[in-house]
Amino acid sequence: MNLASIIKSLRPHKTVPITPWTAQGLWDLTPLRTAILFFGLAIFGLGDSLLIQAGIGNAPWTVFAEGLTLKTGLSIGWATFIISVSVMLLWIPLNERVGFGTISNIVIIAAFIQIGTIIFPKQDNFAIGVIFDLIGIALVGLGSALYITCGLGRGPRDGAMTGIHYKTGVRVGRVRMGIEVTVLIIGWFLGGTVGLGTALFALFIGQSVAIFLGLVARLTHKYV
């Protein structure tokens, strides 16, 4: 495979592709679909834990979770779980529908963030921290692409974003930015770590998800 074909294979995708495992409903479960969902969410959690262990700045929601751990003594996994459940409760007035993927998102990502922070060593070397961040962003992108294409329901944060968008008419991007900035500021005041890693995540996570959605689309299109 030459350089041109590699670059072409990494071209970001503009939409969420239909795959052989895409569900017809939020509770349309099969062994393959469930396995891909769980694997994607686990990879997502491990990627997020690498961002934490890099020590140079977390993703906005993890800044919030870390700040909560500092104020309450909870583990990062439990803090993430509690935040996710709390955000999902916001769905009630927003009329968002909970799917199997929503519940799985809350439990599995929190669990694998906790597992990852045990497996991966905390870094005090800046260069290795940057490498951890870049690998973490890639894993979060891959995990997102896999769980989103299962079609079993949005995660709590995505559901809050789309629900507010539908209720207010404010553009999705602006809603997401407002939410992310709000939780980042709250987490920072609580003592969460903000730094280069936070900026790297903000700059590259969208492209990471889009690139892996493209890879999934190109690898599976002949089977759909």
UniProtKB/TrEMBL annotation:
| Keywords of the record | Membrane, Transmembrane, Transmembrane helix
Which Pfam families is this protein grouped with? DUF6198
Q: Does the keyword Transmembrane helix apply?
A: yes
The reply to whether Cell cycle figures as a keyword in the UniProt entry is no
Which superkingdom is the protein from? Bacteria
User: TM segments?
Assistant: 35-56, 76-94, 101-120, 126-152, 173-190, 196-217
Which PANTHER family does the record associate with it?
INTEGRAL MEMBRANE PROTEIN (PTHR40078:SF1), INTEGRAL MEMBRANE PROTEIN-RELATED (PTHR40078)
User: Under what name is this protein listed?
Assistant: Uncharacterized membrane protein YczE
Species:
Candidatus Planktophila versatilis
